[in-house]
Amino acid sequence: MVYELKDVGVRINGKDILQSVSCTLQKGRWISVIGQAGAGKSTFAQVITGLTPFCTGEYTHNGQSLPGDRRGKRTAVPQAGYVFQFPEQQIFETTVYKELAFALKVKGAAPDKLDEAVKSVMGQLGLPESLLQQNPLQLSGGLKRLVAIASVLIAEPELLILDEPTAGLDPLSRIALLKKLQAWQREKRRTVLFISHQIEDVAEYSDEVMIFTQGRLLAHLEVNELFLRQSKLLEQAGLPLPEPVQLLRWMEAASGRSLEPASCREEDILRLVRPVWQSRGLHHGG
């Protein structure tokens, strides 16, 4: 599945929300979208799914133009799933099983297929089957979040939009959720569009990063290229460096050495920095 925008613009109530956005989203990539509030991140994601009409430009899905009317409204992109902020607020069924099975039941899936799909997605997100007959609205906040996300994943979307999916979660729950989503994405070879203001999460899980500023796409780069070699782009967009990369730069300045980690991920940076920190030369002030 390849999604391609060419010079796409969105204008709402006389205001340009997106301007001349061109990009290509390839299958099987975790692509993060970052930028300050109002930069156009969510609007971009909604254009990709066909939820928001655009005024100018062209959008193709697997080489075919997305059909639309004269006002720019497009047909929803097939096989796209959208996880909004606080997705648990969209739960409406009386049991976890009914909540998870709803989308497939509407499509006419057979009962045995429903059972198989529900058990599979529960396993992927680490949800115990003992929850299936419970009311999802009576679960803890973290479990409700997982059930809501599972109700999107069960349809096995080719493209998964994650719009601040960890909002309101504590750090441990946030990490646990992102690891589960990454495992699902890699196993299924799906495309993920991840909107987040947590720059450390972006550095940790992304293959590529898109930076938006004032409705324009400032850059679309491989994650290591951005954070390790072209980090000045973050400054242009008013965004900070991830804390592990800040530590790396501080250690370079303190040791007088140029350090080249395997990636911008925390584990790789700490593996490189730790022996430098522990070295006698640094301990004794060089």
Overview of this protein structure:
The chain is of the alpha/beta class and 286 residues long. 40% of the residues lie in helices and 21% in strands. Among the domains are: 3-79 and 157-240, P-loop containing nucleotide triphosphate hydrolases (Rossmann fold, 3-Layer(aba) Sandwich); 245-283, no CATH class. The chain has 11 helices and 10 strands. The chain has a 6-stranded mixed beta sheet with strand order 6-7-8-3-9-10, sandwiched between helices. A 4-stranded antiparallel beta sheet has the order 2-1-4-5, with helices on one face. A hairpin with a 2-residue loop joins strand 4 and strand 5 (64-65). Helix 2 (96-106) crosses helix 3 (111-124). It is globular, with a radius of gyration of 21 Å. Its main location: membrane.
Labels describing this entry:
single chain; 286 residues; alpha/beta; Rossmann fold; six-stranded mixed beta sheet; four-stranded antiparallel beta sheet; ABC_transpr_CbiO/EcfA_su; transport; membrane; translocase
